[in-house]
């Protein structure tokens, strides 16, 4: 959630409870992020209709599951990502990157804007095409008083991918453990990567976009510390 006193911007809309049942993610019990999303908005004194803008980092099932809750929000997604969602290629379908009901949910959005490359919005936010994890990954740069923060989506999904030489990891319960740093490969890709060469190029681009190439200035979709971080900038 990004707020400047005039506009409420939501980055991605999360997952639905039925997706958990289908994907069987680890040992997590089905608890739909629809409820989590609505509760999080309520904590800020907001309802879905108060969201002015939605920006998608990409359209995988765990990022776009509640698109239909925001039909009136101006919505931005990379054209390459939208096209890939509709493509006949078997690979994304076999991996279930895009759920069959996603196009229908997006069809409820009245102002869906397809971005072709990089774009600076009137509110100061900057959108950048960063493929790798998906063909149309989108990075959001947020200018703040403390500098430029980068929302990476799943390219990279955690800071340990972007900063492979880190030697500490924070677990979901807040415990910090030692890990083995990788000093030979600067950016590690996860197994869910569409194009590893593009992933590497996008990682370099993201590092250049931040105020400083340091973990403090990055918010990564599946990073444990992002889940607990309440404010930045």
Give the topology.
Elements lengths: L1 E2 L4 E4 L5 H7 L9 H11 L9 E3 L18 E5 H8 L3 H5 L7 H6 L4 E4 L3 E2 L5 E4 L8 E7 L2 E5 L7 H4 L5 E3 L5 E3 L17 H14 L8 E2 L4 H5 L5
Parallel strand pairs: 2-3, 3-4, 4-5, 9-12
Antiparallel strand pairs: 1-2, 6-7, 7-8, 8-9, 10-11
GO molecular function, one term: hydrolase activity
InterPro entries: MBL_superfamily_lactonases, Metallo-B-lactamas, RibonucZ/Hydroxyglut_hydro
Protein name: Metallo-beta-lactamase domain protein
Q: Low-confidence segments, ≥5 residues, pLDDT <50?
A: none
What's the helix-strand series? EEHHEEHHHEEEEEHEEHEH
The CATH level-2 architecture is identified as: 4-Layer Sandwich
Please give the share of residues in helix.
Answer: 25-40%
Number of strands: 12
Radius of gyration: 17 Å
Arithmetic mean of pLDDT:
87
Oligomer: single chain
CATH superfamily membership, which one? Ribonuclease Z/Hydroxyacylglutathione hydrolase-like
Measured between the Cα atoms of the first and last residue, the distance is 13 Å
Number of helices: 8
Describe this structure in words.
There is one protein chain. The chain is α/β, with parallel strands linked by helices and 233 residues long. The protein has a single domain (1-155, 189-225), classed as Metallo-beta-lactamase, Chain A (4-Layer Sandwich), CATH 3.60.15.10. 26% of the residues lie in helices and 19% in strands. It is built from 8 helices and 12 strands. It has helices spanning 17-23, 33-43, 79-86, 90-94, 102-107, 159-162, 196-209, 224-228; strands at residues 2-3, 8-11, 53-55, 74-78, 112-115, 119-120, 126-129, 138-144, 147-151, 168-170, 176-178, 218-219. A 5-stranded mixed sheet has the order 1-2-3-4-5. The protein has a 5-stranded mixed sheet with strand order 6-7-8-9-12, covered by helices on one side. A two-stranded antiparallel ribbon has the order 10-11. The protein is globular and about 45 Å long. The model has no long low-confidence stretch (mean pLDDT 87).
């Amino acid at each position: 959630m990004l707020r400047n006193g005039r506009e409420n911007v939501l980055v991605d809309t999360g997952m639905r409870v039925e997706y958990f049942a289908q994907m069987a993610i680890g040992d997590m019990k089905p608890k739909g992020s629809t409820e989590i999303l609505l509760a999080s908005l309520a904590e800020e004194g907001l309802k879905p209709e108060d969201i002015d803008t939605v920006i998608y980092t990409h359209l995988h099932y765990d990022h776009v599951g509640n698109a239909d809750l925001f039909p009136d929000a101006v919505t931005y997604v990379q054209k390459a990502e939208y096209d890939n969602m509709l493509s006949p290629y078997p690979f994304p379908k076999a991996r279930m990157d895009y759920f069959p009901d996603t196009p229908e949910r997006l069809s409820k959005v009245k102002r869906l804007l397809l971005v072709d490359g990089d774009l600076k919005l009137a509110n100061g936010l900057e959108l950048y095409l960063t493929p790798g994890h998906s063909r149309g990954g989108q990075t959001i740069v947020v200018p703040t008083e403390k500098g430029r923060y980068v929302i990476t989506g799943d390219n990279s999904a955690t800071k340990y991918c972007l900063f492979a030489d880190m030697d500490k990891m924070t677990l979901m319960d807040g415990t910090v453990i030692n890990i083995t740093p990788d000093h030979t490969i600067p950016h590690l890709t996860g197994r869910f990567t569409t194009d590893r060469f593009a992933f590497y190029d996008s990682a370099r681009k993201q590092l250049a976009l931040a105020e400083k190439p340091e973990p403090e200035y990055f918010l990564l979709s599946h990073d444990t510390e992002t889940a607990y971080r309440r404010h930045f900038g």
